[in-house]
Amino acid sequence: MRYAVILAVATAWMLGSCADGTPAVVPICGDGLVEDGEACDDGNAQSGDGCNEKCTVEAGYSCDGDLSVCSTVCGDGVIAGAEICDGSELAGATCESLELGTGDLICDATCDLDPSGCSVYACGNGELDGSEECDGANMNEETCEGRGYDGGSLACTGSCDIDTTGCILFSCGNGIVENVEECDDGNTDPTDGCSANCSVEQGWACVGQPSVCAELCGNGSLDTGEQCDGAALGGQTCESLGQGYVGGTLACAVNCTFNSAACELPTCGNGVLDTGEQCDGVLLNNQTCDSVGAYIGGTLLCLGSCAFDLSGCIPIVCGDGIISPGEACDDGDSDGGDGCNILCSVESGWACTGEPSTCTPLCGNNTVDAGEQCDGGQMGTGTCQGLGFDTGSLVCTTDCTYDTSGCSMFSCGDNIISAGEDCEGGDLNGATCQSLGFVSGPLTCTTNCGFDTTACVPPECGDGIITASIGEQCDDNDTDSGDGCNAACLVENGYICANEPSVCTLSCGNATWDPGEECDGGDLHGGTCLTQGFPGGILACSPTCTYNTSTCLDAVCPNAVREGSEECDGSDFGGQDCTNFNFTSGALSCTGACTIDTSGCANAVCGNSVVEAGEQCDDGDTTGGDGCSSTCQWESTCTADETITCGGSDYMSYSSVAGNDADDFSCSTYGGNYDRIYALTIPAAISSVTANLSCDIWSDDDYDLYILEGSCHGSLCIDYSNSLGCDSVTFDVTPGMTYYIVVERYLASEDLTLDVSCN
Questions:
Q1: Residues with Cβ within 8 Å of residue 713, at least 6 apart in sequence
Q2: How far apart are CA 689 and CA 591, in angstroms?
Q3: 16-25, 135-144, 201-210, 630-639 — which is least confidently predicted?
Q4: What are phi and psi of 674, to 5 degrees?
């Protein structure tokens, strides 16, 4: 009898539809068309691909368009598709379960596990793990000398790679390319093409002796290390970059890297971080200036191309007195020889503390520190016997190295220079004070057959002789500063020194750029308004050999880059979109005067089948009484008797299932007058729910289940079960949405229990 009623009602409905001339249109899930009642339609009726068999978007996915394209949403806390993890949801994985020690395992921005916080991968723990070259002070017994340098100190980077920038070649700076040097331009200044350790710097080419270096970037040709140069793009386009661009114009930045600001992404500007986007509007993917590169602060913005805008970030600068990441010290200058070198690494034999750093020499503190053989009365592990002598006593020199003049061999005095002997009596084995690095004086032999250099004259700054072995660049016969050759015999900025004794002259005004000058006359040393951070204009040189930027421009409109006081430029809106101007949708445009035009923006429209800002629902019309009101807010025609949560259970007697009429809002055309309604709000990371009724089944027992979505209203029924006896329904859900579970007594006289499980 019951099924006859169903058939009769269904037939009447179909005949009624035909009677008024309106065909009965039933949405077909899987036909590739998103119709009323469908949130997506990907052309199939399968679950697990983002759009399920009921054409509802599955948790963890985002679907768009007819023949819907669904993709996982990394960062929503739901593991879906090929995601290994998502947000704080790690699928139970830990450092321990992956056998990576202890620590914190996290999920990265691509929804893959990041084990860098595990102890096995803990760079900075002082232990050599995995592929680490070094870790903190643990250099794996590596030295500058072992890497082909004459001296200096290795350092360990924050990523546990060996940093050789603190290594030196004693001959570097003499203008002769020798040993392992790649270049030698006659100085040890950085950023001029030939570095402080005489290696060619990135983006430069050096030739000749002394080396002449020129910047490769800007010559219009693609050189090693460059992505592009001027109009030379290497055949690349926006589309070929492989970053999801669908058009636009690829350009080359002044640093010879690709500028994709004018490239176009299909979804850029929609306020959602899509695949291939670094950012979108105000969404920066939890990144800051500090986290994206060598910066110490500032404001990170988003370009109109959904790439990071770093123009507001403050770069790390060695010599600013601030110890930034990657710096071991910073004493507020870029001089070497004072403990903190030009690369902000602690020099061998020094200790630096504080900010700005104060550096003091270690030699002389009566403690044997790294790089010292001895210090004062502390000889470390050294003995004459350990150094190959038969007897005697070591002493420590003022430069913390061993003095073996007190050591002797039992064969000393036989007039034969044996192993371990420097000399025998008057036989100095061809040595002189000069061959031992001194300037002059008589060399003699001690009674222990070692060289006696007490009468030798050591090299010193101010003797008029340039001694490169002690780091002198000049020597003008005095130790005065301010005359071109300073108290440490280093050439002062703005001077040129030549000859012995050195004669130093001011370099500013000779129309040729020299170290210490930004420019000189017409020689701007490659500088332009662009290199000084301006978008255009003409750079000049002041009489003091510093850049004069008074004729540079703060902004160039239009040039597709937002600058100065510009509100926008081309497609660059500084990360803003219509939502920043109190609109809900649409696209900004930029005027010829580089001001923002909002005429293309719009506000939410109720009845367009799109749930926009301020709307709870949108069913494609503005008719009320169908679950979604004329102002696109949920409507309710019933009230929940009580709430229930995931994992909850509720027992009820059959006589208590009463009070509402399921006929008014059920998915069926039949029903009794005994109902109970439960409200269930879905927590995060839940994608499906099973509501199960359990009861004693008799021949006349029948309870039915109905599921309403969004509000307690008859038109919002999404699933039901009305089989004989008790029922169970499994349905897909959206986190944060409230669902209503309706229990209807049809024909029953037994008690029952409702159980709710969530997955």
A1: 626, 627, 634, 635, 636, 637, 638, 665
A2: 52
A3: 16-25
A4: -120, 105
The whole-angstrom separation of Cα 649 and Cα 553 is: 71
Give the span between the Cα atoms of 531 and 30, in whole angstroms: 57
Q: Which has the higher per-residue pLDDT, 699 or 241?
A: 241
Query: How large is the average pLDDT for residues 645-671?
Result: 67
- Higher-confidence residue of 17 and 65: namely 65
Per the CB < 8 A criterion, the answer to whether 598 and 608 are in contact is no
Is residue 13 scored above 50 in pLDDT?
Answer: no
**Which pLDDT score is estimated for 12?**
41
Provide the β-strand partners of residue 707: 719, 741
pLDDT tens column, 256-281: 888 888 887 677 778 888 877 889 88
Q: How many angstroms separate the CA atoms of 304 and 573, rounded?
A: 6
Task: Pick the closest to residue 470 from 151, 186, 176 (CA basis).
Answer: 151
Total Cβ atoms within 10 A of residue 631: 12
Q: Give the separation between CA 518 and CA 494, rounded to whole angstroms.
A: 10
The number of beta carbons lying within 10 Å of the beta carbon of residue 451 is 19
Q: Token digits for 687?
A: 């994608």
* pTM (2 d.p.): 0.28
Task: Give the Cα separation of 726 and 429 in Å (integer).
Answer: 110
- Please provide the average confidence, as pLDDT, over all residues in the chain: 84
CA distance 362 to 177: 33
Question: 400, exposed or middle or buried, with CB in 10 Å at 0-12, 13-18, 19+?
Answer: buried
Model confidence band, residue 57 (pLDDT cutoffs 50, 70, 90): very high
Q: Which of 75, 51, 46 is nearest to 62 (CA)?
A: 51
Question: What pLDDT does 407 receive?
Answer: 82
The rounded distance, in Å, linking the Cα atoms of 279 and 577 is 13
Question: DSSP of 390-446, one letter per residue?
Answer: SEE--EE-TTS-EE-TTEE-TTTTSSS--TT-S-BTTB-TT--TGGGT-SB---EE-
Residue 347 one-letter amino acid: E
Nearest in space to 89 (alpha carbons), one of 116, 59, 62: 59
DSSP string, 347-382: PTTEEEETTTTEEEESTTSSS--TT-S-BTTB-TT-
Taking the C-alpha atoms of residue 265 and residue 638, their distance in angstroms, rounded to an integer, is 46
Strand partners, 340: 346
What is the 8-class DSSP label of residue 751?
-
**Which positions ≥6 away from 246 have C-beta within 8 Å?**
238, 239, 264, 265, 266
Band the pLDDT of 335: cuts 50, 70, 90: confident
- pLDDT value at 692 more than 90: yes
Question: Per-residue pLDDT tens for 475-524?
Answer: 999 988 888 899 889 988 778 898 989 999 888 888 888 877 889 888 99
Strand, helix or coil for residue 15: helix
* Model pLDDT, residue 120: 67
